[in-house]
Every structure is written in structure tokens, then in C-alpha cells.
Amino acid sequence: VALTGVFAGKPRMETDILFVGRVNQGKFKKFLQLAHRFAEDEVRYTLMTASEFEYRKSMNDRFVKNILENNPIVVLDKTRHRNIAKLVYRL
């Protein structure tokens, strides 16, 4: 889960939250409700499978490249290769 757009001080980004991987629908809804409250407006989000994200990243996809180049705030990272963030708010 990465915050970008309004949460990273870049309101013109195409998405405000990027979810990569499998998403628990109950936690997803709670997270979006919390995000709406913090943003005080509608929140744009993107859901992607891990394989789609990796494919798009390897193809230098404009959407993914733009997100990665604009310093997203990684809220949760459950990849095997990194352990760089913890979920601040437990759902």
C-alpha cells in the first residue's frame, strides 16, 4: 500500500492510493473510509495484482513510473525482499 497524490502533497497525480497484491475487502473498505476522512474529499485509488505491477514496472509503464518517481509513502510492504514499513493504523 502506497500513498501518493493528495497524501504526498501532489494532488495532480492520477491516483492517491496504490494497492498492490491481494486485498481483504473488509479492511479495504475501512482503509478507504479512513482515507476519505483524512483527505476530506474523494480519494482516487488503484488496485493491481503483484504480477501486473511488476509487469508494468518492467515495461516502463507511464502510470507506474510516475508513481515511483514521485516518492510515494509506503504504508505497508509485505514483499519478501523488503521490510521497510509498518502499518501505522491497525484496521
Chain-wise SSE layout:
Layout (H helix, E strand, L loop, with lengths): L1 E2 L13 E4 L4 H15 L5 E4 L1 H9 L3 H8 L3 E2 L17
Describe, in plain words, how this protein is organized in 3D.
The chain is of the alpha+beta class. It has three helices and four strands; from the N terminus they run ββαβααβ. A four-stranded mixed β-sheet has the order 3-2-1-4. It is globular. The two termini are 13 Å apart.
Strand arrangement, largest sheet?
3-2-1-4
Low-confidence segments: 81-91
Largest sheet: 4 strands, mixed
Overall pLDDT level: 82
Gyration radius, rounded = 13 Å
Percent range of helical residues: 25-40%
At a glance:
The chain is α+β, with helices and mostly antiparallel strands and 91 residues long. Helix content is 35%, strand content 13%.
Key structural traits:
globular; disordered C terminus; 91 residues; 35% helix; 3 helices; alpha+beta
